[in-house]
Amino acid sequence: MLRSLVGSEMCIRDRYQRRVRDPDIIVQQFYALRRLCVTRIGFSSAAIVPTLVKGVGAVSVRALKMHNSAVSHAVMDFLCTLMTPHHNNYDAYHEQVNKNRMLASSSFLSHLLVLLKGHIESDSGALVIQALLDFFVYSICPPYSESTEEGYFSTILSLMVEQIGKSIYLLFGHHCKAIRFSAGNIVRVILEEGDEDQFFALQRAALSEGGFLRQFHIASFNRDRQLRDLARKLIAYWAFENQITQDLLRRMLPVTLLHFLQSKD
How far apart are CA 31 and CA 159, in angstroms? Predict the structure, then answer.
């Protein structure tokens, strides 16, 4: 069974390498790879056969360079199946191997971030944005981050701040709740786990890009408990040792209420 699955995966990969410039065919090939790797045996085969992931990684980069939204979504949907198992009774070692092989190339991660930033700033490709965010959520957000090696974890935080930076706050106004929640979680992790420079860079950007006001509105009035709790955590981080944000809060809230919220009791 394992041999036939590996053979199928490599056959699809080799067919892409030999020919095909038709986006529709490429999309179907990556969806076929996804259906193979989403199974327990397919997921394990990717971990056991290192040349498979290496070859698929090169093919994925070539496909992403086509700048076709349908192809990009199919590629990212497939890559996300390798980032975390989507089945029960999986081998944690296989999860770690698959994920860290994907994260080993900083140039590959940079390419994904450039693609993400392009879609954010052009306000296009919501499905592609969500798939790219899922990839990075599986990389750095708990509980998925437990299987990410520390060095790769730090590299991703640095690359995200350097290459995406304040652009990620544009997603806080996106019409899709899942995108807003994923973006908020990524920002929260950078604030919690990043170094001091990364923390203060995102803290300043929250004011300049309007992220603070959007999250304040969610924290105060949104009926969704998940989004509301996340927004309150972000506001607490943004106000930490930030005199400008604290002054803004004093203008927005009654003084007595602000003192009550700041009280340790």
Answer: 28
